[in-house]
Amino acid sequence: MTSRVAVVTGSNKGIGFSIVRALCKQFDGDVYLTARDEERGKKAVEDLEEEGLHPKFHQLDITNQKSIDNLQKYLKDKYGGLDVLVNNASIAYKVKDVTPFAEQAKYTIACNFTGTLDVCKALLPLIKPHGRVVNVASGSGTRALDKMSSERASKFKALDLTETELVSLLEDFVNAASDGTHTEKGYPNSAYGTSKAGVIVLTGIQARDLKNDPREDILINACCPGHVQTDMSSHQGTKTPDEGAETPVYLALLPPNAGQPQGEMLSDKKIVKWR
Ligand SMILES: NC(=O)c1ccc[n+]([C@@H]2O[C@H](COP(=O)([O-])OP(=O)(O)OC[C@H]3O[C@@H](n4cnc5c(N)ncnc54)[C@H](OP(=O)(O)O)[C@@H]3O)[C@@H](O)[C@H]2O)c1
After folding, report:
1. How far are the Cα atoms of 5, 47, 48, 152, 178 from residue 52, in angstroms, in the given order?
2. Separation in Å, CA 43 to CA 56, 61, 241
3. Segment 124-132 mean pLDDT
4. For the domain 4-94+115-140+196-272, what is the CATH code?
5. Among the atoms of ligand 1, which is closest to the Cα of residue 14?
6. Helix or strand or coil: residue 82?
7. What's the pLDDT tens digit per position in 48-93?
8. 93 is catalytic
9. What is the Cα 8 distance to its own chain's centre?
10. Would strands 127-136 and 219-224 be described as parallel, antiparallel, or unpaired?
11. Which family does it belong to (predicted)?
12. If pLDDT is split at 50, 70 and 90, which confidence band does 1 have?
């Protein structure tokens, strides 16, 4: 029998690294630390080996379709599927960054939303019965939904919104940011927040779509890790990376037939209402 397998995206540092550390201790199967940069990824694996842990490594750049396809093929050939996927990889421009907003919007949506979606498109079909998928979002995403005009928010929150319609909304945000009309059109002035709003809404759609899926007991949820001391937060924050990993790991290890949460957004292991 092939062993069970878990994959964590963007896990050469920060919260992703801590998720791998926790899964190595608690998950009964192979745990893949993945990184866009092979050298940084392999160094991170060595660091965990020094702690007596045994993660495996695979390259993955979530903005590169070829890289995603390579991982998909590898998992299919070696394991015949996937048991746990944690979509953790993201970027965030610093507040002081002078990169024009249009460019920030383009690259942030491309990585945090579209990259996560592309990984899901490739790997969700591989998820085995009782599999768990965790999309690491952010409280910034729920705040972005709150900051939208009511007309704009109602589009994101529509119960029958499809994945294709959500993709169009995010494309519209990027286009509006490029001609400076995003706030006029009811979007918040945050590329990161909007990307994470997209991830939260996407998670709900993916869970709804699973209702028509013959595979048994697959749970998919989004979460906020909290305000965590990592490079992304310039090491500000109330939580260590290991503490930030707790809610994602809790969702990744929900016991068989737990039934819920499903399609929710969680913070500190509790459901956050956003609709
Ligand atoms: N820190 C917080 O306070 C906080 C709060 C709310 C939510 N979050 C979320 O928690 C998650 C982890 O954040 P963090 O604080 O640990 O950030 P981090 O320290 O900046 O780590 C981000 C990780 O994502 C990787 N990454 C970026 N772009 C990638 C790509 N295209 N393909 C593959 N990997 C990529 C980075 O790789 P490189 O080393 O190659 O750049 C790095 O390993 C993110 O989803 C973030 O939005 C964090």
Report:
1. 19, 9, 7, 50, 48
2. 12, 17, 18
3. 98
4. 3.40.50.720
5. 16
6. strand
7. 999 999 999 999 999 999 999 999 999 999 999 999 999 999 999 9
8. no
9. 9
10. parallel
11. Belongs to the short-chain dehydrogenases/reductases (SDR) family.
12. low
**Confidence grade of residue 195 (pLDDT, cut at 50, 70, 90):** very high
Q: Are 157 and 198 in contact (CB under 8 A)?
A: no
Spans of all domains in the chain: 4-94+115-140+196-272
**Percent of residues, the chain, with pLDDT higher than 70:** 100
**Nearest alpha carbon to residue 193 among 224, 235, 168:** 224
Residue with the smallest CA separation from ligand 1 atom 44 is 90
Over the chain, what is the mean pLDDT?
A: 98
Q: Are 2 and 27 a contacting pair, CB within 8 Å?
A: no
Element (H, E) at 132: strand 127-136
Which helix H or strand E contains 152, and what residues bound it? helix 150-157
User: 2 pLDDT band (50/70/90 cuts)?
Assistant: confident
What are the distances in angstroms from CA 220 to CA 44, 134, 147, 254, 256? 27, 6, 25, 10, 13
Q: Which residues contact 194 (CB under 8 A, 6 or more apart)?
A: 105, 108, 109, 144, 170, 173, 187, 188
**Nearest residue (CA) to ligand 1, atom 7:** 138
Residue that is written with structure tokens 């490594």 in the block: 57
CA nearest neighbour of 175 among 201, 196, 89, 184: 184
Best of 43, 90, 203, 239 for a ligand 1 pocket test (most atoms within 8 Å of beta carbon): 90
CB 235 within 8 A of CB 223: no
Mutation test of ligand 1: which of 230, 234, 242, 266 has the most ligand atoms closer than 8 Å to its C-beta?
230
Q: What does DSSP say about strands 29-35 and 56-59: parallel, antiparallel, or unpaired?
A: parallel
